[in-house]
Design brief:
The complex is a heterodimer. Chain A has 2 domains: 230 residues, 3-Layer(aba) Sandwich (Rossmann fold), CATH 3.40.50.2000; 185 residues, Glycogen Phosphorylase B (Rossmann fold, 3-Layer(aba) Sandwich), CATH 3.40.50.2000. Chain A contains 19 helices and 14 strands. In chain A, strands 3-4-2-1-5-6-7-8 form an 8-stranded mixed β-sheet, with helices on both faces. Chain A has a 6-stranded parallel β-sheet with strand order 11-10-9-12-13-14, sandwiched between helices. In chain A, helix 6 links the parallel strand 5 and strand 6. By secondary structure, chain A is an alpha/beta fold. By secondary structure, chain B is α/β, with parallel strands linked by helices. Chain B is built from 33 helices and 31 strands. Chain B is globular and about 110 Å long. The chains are: A alpha/beta, B alpha/beta. Chains A and B meet through helix 9, strand 14, helix 17 and helix 18 of A and helix 2, strand 21 and helix 15 of B.
């Protein structure tokens, strides 16, 4: 199968979608023998689409692990000029504010649609909304009479980003839509999209990346005590990720389990000040129970996840929640929230516990239950691990992507046949 | 390990006659629809949970499971591992002894290609002796004769130069046969190797049966039914029963059939001789039905043999699936056949009614054929009618002869023997669609009317979870409530993931149950557990202690086995009336809260169920919504009483006899085997004791537990009075002993050592509705029981003769009963306990609860909102609630944009103007 992926960034660019598409592209090439080409930008991250001062990569064609990469230059100055006007149109909900927001967000890539139309692919798949390249992909694929698949990664809670009419009109026109979770699928169904063309694919993880190390070895490497119980928070640090709720919950946990350690690991760029203030407001006797690892390296993730006993990540905004998969890969029980897509990833009571978002009392009790009942905890962790093995390895996810592509190709062929007749 | 699916080799999906169609490896066709085809396509290489996940939004889980089960049963999908799921069918064995000769009669016409398949399958039969007679019905060439002579010289081959009717040809075959049984077969059939054995088994089982019908399946779609016998309708054409049905064993329990199809039927020769030959007046069609209906008229039965499978090439070697119609000649024979059938067999009244229906249909068909330009078919109807008119007198004569011999009234022939299954076919080809699966096959599966094991519905692949919340401690020492929840949890853990939530950490280790503690002072500690389970079993005062339960979206099962509001009357007797009233008001509040919050309720016995139905009615829970699917209300409240462990009690050691200094090895133990509560009457027992001890100086009275094992529960007031009474008798610590609670295991040892179990109570409201764990313990251990009359267990004691029922407060009667039972000895009571012990195992007792866990729904009257803990991403209905026009305009602007706001405003202004 000849596949063209269109994505806003590709390694070494950083981001969830960028990583996902890299993994899918490589798995399709290596496991299924597909010919995968990626059209992407020369930016390292999303800020580069509207900020001309951000560093960029070289444009042109290259190859990474068997995948051909074509990096296009981005017109970030054009986007930048739209900043104030899109804001006004959005606030007043004026006509075309969706398009203004989209053009402001970029990436504006001249000739992208034409290049897609001319590229000899069986299927064109684009990720992720609300970025402009999704619309270019639809335009180009339709012009070139190719099957087109969207993998949108919608976050319904983000009004500015995703409450845009043009997104849902575009989704109506594609052959297949790949949703991260059934939550996203239901959301689109409620938006009036034909459910038969929505397919849930999920995200993936490589469980081997988290194996080969014991809990004690990981703790020794991270200088963590061997005999204490550790509650871990590993991921992006921000208010919407519930770190504040977790810290408040720990105050209750420490009353009955005074030696439990809270390990917080992640990038704290945007939320640094608030977090520092929150941590410094903790009673002195509990400050010793904190272990902080900021801006850790990707290789260290394995040690962090293996060192903890419970993964508590009470986030309220996840389009999927890949961190839960990573915790399960290390056979750890997880705690998430009932918010958004998370209950569609964690099976409550089966492989983790769910608590109401921002409810520190319930979160504390969930932690206490898992701390007190090792057998219960470990059964949740093992169930999660088995779920990863059966549903969320990269091969599983790539197979689901591929099924979606095949369906889109068949659909296009059928339509072409009917048109010929 | 989850089951996975793969497509069966050489099965493909294509379009035939513009309809989706499965083509099997032999080229046979089965029409389907897009929804089922999607599941089939997607299932390749996928495990069951993935398939359910994928289609879960548009289809109910059970629809997906049923679809997969049916696709496997149809051999369009295979599942693995499959070897663990054998068929449930058990084939009967032929009884030992001499078997009767089966004469196989095959009417053949240019049939070498068919016989080449049929004859080997006859020779491969597990049954013998068999003789084969083939009637060559005027085949134009001698090819078949030569082929038979060459390959099967032992077959009796009869060459017929002039073509005979099907009836006449079969009659000729029968005349030349010698067998005890006649096996009529069409040439286009093929047999399972034990078809004859199974047919003969059924014939032997029912001596009054004239014919045994084989299960005919389609040769080119072998998992689909051609017919389980056939039927003549009083308003339309005759038909094969169950044509096009996927064979899931749904017909295997049929006892009688209206008629057998002579494409594959076994006839008892003795019956044939009495009933007569096949009526040669039928040129083709209806002759087999007429013979079978005639047999029934004469008092015989027609029975099916579901394990005798014969494959029939109905419609040809491989039907095309295109529209096919009978030739005018065949159409004429069908029209004539049913008229002859009705006129010959039915009484005047029934005949008039049936013939009038046939007249209507013939007129309709005549006009329809004329309109469609099918003149030959229209004329065929006229020819059939003329022929019928000509033969009417002859038929009337036969009819009168039959009337003289009839054993049943002819009108009974047309009565419905069983509910006729739907026919699933299109242009003579079976259909298997999502709609037939939802509406027909799934109900069969769920009602246990199929005979194939379907792992998709097994608990392993359908495992549910439940949280059982005990308000009492569960530990090595526990009272009846703790025992109840532990045993329910143990019994359910065989099928479900069970978590047992207890108010204090437990020292018990149960490998199949997760035991987790909650803190009554922190409601969130229970909230987390309840929210993370599909369903939770709660009881009593939890409704008050945990207000979140009123708003919980997961399913709530409420245990009402303890009529606590009645117990309270005796619990608080020492308090002033105002205090008692306050307690009562709280209890009533709790009862009402429980009644409102439950999706499903369980209670201890039928008496309790009546009481609680009253409470539920008073709280509006007995309402049209709950009654709509469940007239009995068993899906709202059912009985889960108290049971026994699924084993006999055992203990490696003794606790008292020979161990305790006051218990010699031969002493008799009278046991009060539970708590001493205010609503019981242990005092009468102590008052009776001096009389007992006079007669049996070696008797010892043992009271178990003066306090509740939960230290938070205060001692009941009656305990002190009891101890004083015991002291008054002078027997305390001599022959009356108070021992503290034993562990759950030690309790077994005490039960085994004891000779009599006693429980006494006053007659009051609580007694009528209660059910006591201690009595169940006595039953389990086979201890003869002395019990006061009035409660449900005293009735069991009386009915099953398990001991003596005494009047309330009657010390003398109690003493007499104890003396009587001690004289008699406990061994002579043991056999009386057997049936109760088998019936009341915990496994049986929890069955209604298990049923609810797997198939129960949220109570229909509690479905006002979408009951899921998961957030529903549907848009809100806020807009509808805004009445102020300006606010509404602002809302529209904010949510739907400027243009929408302007548009709606214009519409609204136009509307206002038009009103003016």
């Amino acid at each position: 199968m000849k596949i063209l992926h269109v994505v806003q960034g590709y390694t070494p660019a950083i981001g969830g979608t960028e990583y996902l598409i890299q993994k899918i592209s490589e798995t399709l090439t290596q496991e299924f023998g597909d010919e995968v080409t990626v059209f992407t930008t020369n930016c390292f991250n999303g800020e580069g689409f509207w900020n001309p001062r951000m560093p960029t990569m070289a444009t042109g064609v290259s190859e990474i692990n068997g995948v051909k990469i074509h990096r296009f230059p981005v017109r970030s100055r054009l986007s930048q000029n739209l900043r104030p006007i899109q804001k006004i149109f959005f606030q007043l909900n004026l006509p075309y504010n969706d398009w203004l927001r989209t053009y402001f967000g970029g990436p504006i890539i001249p000739h992208l649609a034409q290049s897609i139309a001319e590229f000899p692919a069986d299927v064109v798949a684009a990720s992720s909304f609300p970025l402009l390249h999704m619309f270019d992909t639809l335009k180009g694929a339709r012009k070139g009479n190719k099957a087109v698949v969207f993998h949108g990664g919608l976050h319904p809670q983000d009004i500015w980003g995703f409450d845009r009419k043009n997104i849902y009109k575009a989704i109506e026109l594609v052959d297949i839509y790949l949703a991260n979770t059934d939550f996203e699928k239901k959301y689109l169904k409620n938006k009036g999209i034909d459910i038969s063309k929505i397919k849930t694919v999920g995200c993936g993880v490589n469980p081997d990346d988290f194996s080969g190390i014991t809990r004690d070895q990981a703790r020794s490497l991270l200088n963590l005590p061997l005999d204490a119980q550790i509650v871990g928070y590993i991921g992006q640090i921000g208010l919407h990720k519930g770190i504040d709720t977790l810290i408040k919950a720990m105050l209750t946990v420490w009353q009955s389990h005074p030696h439990t350690i809270l390990l917080v690991a992640g990038g704290k760029a945007l939320y640094a000040k608030q977090l520092d203030a929150l941590l410094s407001s903790l009673p002195e006797q509990y400050k010793e129970n904190l272990a902080l690892y900021f801006n850790f390296k990707e290789e260290e993730k394995k040690y962090l996840f293996n060192a903890i006993d419970i993964f508590a990540y009470p986030s309220g905004y996840e389009s999927f929640g890949i961190s839960y998969l990573e915790a399960w890969s290390a056979k750890k029980p997880v705690i998430g929230t009932w918010r958004g897509a998370i209950p569609y990833v964690i099976d409550a009571g089966q492989d983790g516990l769910l608590v109401p978002f921002q409810n520190c009392h319930c979160l504390a009790m969930a932690i206490v239950v898992l701390l007190d009942y090792a057998i219960y905890s470990s059964s949740l962790g093992i169930n999660g691990f088995n779920k990863v093995l059966t549903k969320f390895t990269w091969k599983d996810v790539a197979t689901r992507f591929r099924d979606g592509y095949k369906k889109a190709i068949e659909k296009t062929k059928r339509v072409n046949c009917q048109n010929m007749h | 390990m989850s089951i996975k699916y793969s497509l069966v080799d050489n099965v493909r999906l294509t379009y035939v006659a513009e309809k989706l169609c499965f083509i099997n490896e032999t080229g046979g066709k089965v029409f389907t629809d897009r929804a089922l085809a999607d599941i089939w396509e997607f299932a390749q290489g996928k495990p069951l949970p993935d398939i359910i996940d994928h289609f879960g939004d548009s289809l109910h889980k059970n629809h997906i499971r049923a679809a997969l089960s049916c696709l496997v049963a149809a051999h369009f999908l295979s599942r693995f591992p499959d070897k663990e799921y054998p068929s449930k069918t058990i084939h009967d064995q032929l009884p030992a002894g001499q078997n009767g000769l089966v004469s196989v009669i095959i009417v053949a016409y240019q049939g070498v290609q068919w016989l080449a398949e049929l004859l080997p399958s006859i020779y491969a039969q597990t049954y013998s002796p068999v003789e084969i007679i083939i009637i060559d019905n005027a085949s134009p060439s001698r090819e078949m004769a030569e082929w038979i002579q060459d390959k099967y010289p032992d077959i009796q081959f009869i060459r017929q130069e002039q073509a005979l009717s099907f009836a006449a040809a079969n009659n000729l075959g029968v005349k030349n046969s010698r067998g005890e049984y006649l096996m009529l077969l069409n040439q286009d059939t093929k047999l399972d190797k034990d078809a004859f054995s199974q047919l003969v088994i059924e014939a032997k089982k029912y001596p009054c049966c004239a014919a045994v019908a084989a299960k005919l399946r389609l040769l080119w779609a072998p998992q689909f039914i051609n017919g389980i016998g056939n039927i003549v309708h009083d308003h339309s054409w005759g038909a094969d029963i169950g044509f096009g049905n996927l064979d899931l064993g749904q017909f295997d329990t049929l006892a009688n059939l209206p008629s057998a199809c002579f494409a594959g039927a076994l006839i008892r020769k003795s019956a044939w001789d009495e009933i007569g030959e096949i009526d040669e007046g039928f040129p083709m069609y209806y002759e087999d039905s007429e013979w079978c209906y005639r047999a029934r008229l004469l008092g015989y039965r027609i029975v099916p043999a579901p394990n005798a499978v014969i494959y029939h090439a109905f419609g040809g070697k491989i039907p095309s699936g295109d529209r096919a119609e009978l030739s005018p000649k065949k159409f004429e024979n069908v029209c004539y056949g049913r008229l002859r059938f009705a006129y010959k067999l039915l009484d005047e009244e029934t005949r008039d009614e049936v013939l009038s229906n046939y007249d209507d249909e013939d007129i309709h068909n005549f006009i329809a054929n004329l309109v469609r330009g099918r003149i030959k078919h229209a004329l065929a109807i006229l020819r059939a009618r003329r022929r019928f008119g000509q033969s009417k007198d002859d038929i009337a004569q036969i009819h009168s002869q039959l009337t003289a011999r009839q054993a049943i009234h002819p009108s009974a022939l047309m009565e419905t023997i069983f509910e006729e299954p739907p026919v699933f076919e299109y242009n003579g080809v079976p259909t298997l669609t999502m709609s037939s699966i939802k509406n027909y096959y799934l109900p069969l599966i769920l009602n246990g009317r199929t005979n194939i094991t379907m792992p998709e519905f097994s608990s392993e692949n359908n495992r549910r979870d439940i949280l059982i919340v005990s308000h009492d401690i569960i530990a090595s020492k526990m009272a009846g409530t703790g025992v109840r929840y532990l045993e329910i949890a143990r019994a359910l853990s065989e099928w479900a993931e069970v978590t047992l939530a207890v108010p204090q950490p437990s020292n018990l280790e149960e490998p199949s149950i997760k035991i987790v503690a909650y803190d009554e002072s922190i409601p969130e500690s229970l909230q987390v557990l309840v929210e993370n389970h599909e369903q939770s079993l709660i009881s009593g005062y939890m409704a008050l202690k945990f207000p979140f339960l009123e708003k919980i979206k997961t399913k709530l099962i409420v245990d009402l086995y303890d009529p606590f509001f009645l117990e309270n009357f005796y619990y608080y007797t020492d308090l002033p009336m105002e205090e008692q009233e306050k307690h009562n008001q709280v209890a009533i509040q709790v009862v009402n809260k429980l009644a409102k919050m439950g999706d499903y309720f369980i209670c201890g016995n039928e008496r309790q169920r009546d009481l609680w139905l009253g409470v539920l009615s008073a709280n509006g829970r007995v309402n049209p919504r709950n009654l709509s699917d469940d007239d009995t209300l068993r899906q709202l409240i059912d009985i889960v009483g108290i049971g026994f462990p699924d084993r006999a009690p055992s203990s490696p050691r003794r606790l008292l006899r020979g161990i305790h200094p006051d218990f010699c090895a031969d002493e008799k133990i009278v046991l009060w085997g539970g708590g001493i509560w205010n609503w019981l009457d242990p005092i009468t027992l102590v008052k009776a004791w001096p009389s007992v001890i006079t007669e049996h100086p070696n008797a010892r009275l043992v009271f178990l537990g003066t306090r509740h094992p939960n230290p938070k529960v205060p001692q009941h007031e009656i305990v002190q009075r009891l101890i004083q009474e015991a002291e008054l008798t002078g027997e305390k610590e001599k022959s009356i002993f108070f021992i503290e609670w034993l562990s759950y295991e030690e309790r077994e040892a005490l039960l085994l050592e004891s000779d009599i179990g006693v429980t006494l109570h006053a007659i009051h409201a609580e007694t009528r509705y209660s059910i006591r764990t201690r009595v169940m313990d006595y039953f389990w251990a086979g201890l003869p029981v002395i019990i006061t009359e009035g409660d449900i267990t005293s009735e069991w004691v009386k009915t099953n003769q398990l001991g003596v029922v005494v009047p309330p407060n009657d010390a003398q009667a109690t003493a007499d009963a104890i003396i009587h039972l001690l004289d008699k000895g406990k061994d002579c009571y043991k056999p009386s306990f057997k049936s109760l012990q088998e019936q009341l195992t915990w496994k049986n007792v929890v069955e209604p609860l298990r049923n609810y866990i797997f198939h129960g729904k949220n109570a229909p009257d509690r479905q006002a909102f979408y009951r899921s803990m998961r957030e529903d991403p549907s848009p809100t209905a806020d807009e509808l609630l805004i009445r102020n026009p300006f606010k509404k305009a602002m809302y529209l602007w904010a949510t739907k944009g400027f243009r929408s706001m302007v548009k709606q405003t214009i519409i609204h202004i136009k509307f206002l103007l038009s009103k003016k």
